[in-house]
Known about the structure:
- Helix 2 (35-62) runs antiparallel to helix 6.
- The protein is mainly alpha-helical.
- The protein has helices at residues 2-30, 35-62, 69-99, 111-115, 119-135, 140-169, 173-191, 201-214, 223-247.
Amino acid sequence: MLYKSLILGVLFSIGVFAGKSGIGLAYLLERTPSGKGKTLRLLAFALLYGLVFGLAAWGLLVFDPLAHLDSIQRFLQSGMLVHLLMAGVMVVWGLMVLRKPRLHGRASRGWLLLTLPCPVCATVIVFSLAFGLSLFPEHFHRVAGGLYLAFVAISLATTGLMLGVSRATSRSPETMLGGAMILVGAYFLLSMAVLPQFTDVDKIYRLASARVSSHPQELVTLLPMAALTVLSFLAGFGRTRKKIRSVV
């Protein structure tokens, strides 16, 4: 049960950042007039995160995370400030977008904060793949590919939901973007209370590594849990949509 909870947490973390990226992608697509342009942006998004996942997986195969956990912990502790700064900027920027939805007729660049991989997002991807490597070393490529596909699928699902909400409520893309930035930034500020728990990441990773040598896991046993994660994410997104509508 402990290991299933750990994996569920990993999938949830991936889902949070996938949803954030999908919100920004929705705004970008709404401000892209041509169908060809939309297709190219979707491909660029998929390739960008494919590169991030690929580099993370390659790094884990080349370097032993256990040998560098002290450096990783120091990086995470210093990254708290970056996390706080980005969340604060996102909230302030979102408020500015809501006050002036279309300044001088130009599209907002706020989607960049949501869509592009930030240091915290990249760290979550690395640790998610690290747990996958420790639990399923013989199936690591399948695990890495599965996590990437789950990330893209959640991002696209979020994008579709945001576009649907925008059209159903007749809200401007800037209004939707500003409200989403405020909510995401507020969520990240609240998560600051959780991030210090990464100080015990060495114990968690060693626990996961020990599992490999004693009781290997089968990927098929994780399918119900993965489905539960997706459903939980969609339910949370529904609540977030109501909050966005109340903000705007």
